[in-house]
Structures are given as C-alpha cells and as structure tokens.
Amino acid sequence: MQDRDLSGQKILVVEDNFHFRKLLVTILGHIGVAEIREASDGREALEILKTFAADLAIIDWKMDGMDGLECVRRIRRDEETGTRRIPVLMVTGYDENQVMERARDAGANDILVKPISPRGLMRSLGQVIEAPNAFIETEDYVGPDRRRLKAAFEGTEKRYAEPEGLPQGS
Fold it and tell me: Does the pLDDT at position 150 exceed 70?
C-alpha cells in the first residue's frame, strides 16, 4: 500500500449500509485518519457538515433517504457552510459509463467502484487529496473540472488504458 500521511485529515463517511460504513471507517482508522465522522444518508451528512470541518467526504451513490448524488449537488451549491469545495470521493457498486458521468456531473472529484480494497481506497484518496482538479463555478455547474474523467476508449479497455492528456498512473 502506498504510504500517505493522513494523520491530519478529517473525513466524513456517508453510507447507509452499516457494515460497509464500518469497513470504510476501519480502513481509514488503520491508515491513520485523524478524525472520522459517520452519516447514514445525505441529509445527516449535510447536518454534520454544518459543524464538522471535513477535509474530504466519502459518499455512497445509492442510499435510502437522500442519495449520494443529491447530497453532492447540495454540498456544491451550499454557500453558507464553506463546504462547497470539499473533495468528494463517491463510492458505488455500478461501473457503467452513465453512472460515472452522473457522479462527475453532480460534482464528485473521483469515483471508487465497490468492492473496494484498502489499496484502492488509498489510491483514490491520494488522487483526490494530492492531485485535485481545478474547481469550476459556473451558472450550471459547481465542482471539480470534469474533463479529467472523460475517457477516450470503450469496453473493457477503459479499466486498463490511460485517458489522453493524463500522466501515467492517474
């Protein structure tokens, strides 16, 4: 596993499945995350973010109550709490291009497909924390620059090929 110092990070984990939420919290604890808060849906996450200065949020796509897409959209549009620029790693069990595009268009910085591994989680956290995309604010969109996530390939190659314009290993 890549060595990243996450000891000063504060992370919010938003997941309605208790067992998967505890798995994420356990992995984050083992890799040294300073403070972890948990929410079981988007509404609870938005309440927590009013008083918790998270450095990053890990948000599940599909949840009972407010789902992850709506939660990310509301975070990106929130001008009052100062959370609109928080990096968001969206976790989903779906790997179709349409799902990835919808998460990207909602304002997610990166997407991690379940099942996850500690190594995959660390890689995604590293990408979001250490190499963030420029933040864009327009009338129609608030969030990270979406161009990084557009793939120039189809089919099974999308898992192995590097998109044009990205450094190797991104």
Answer: no
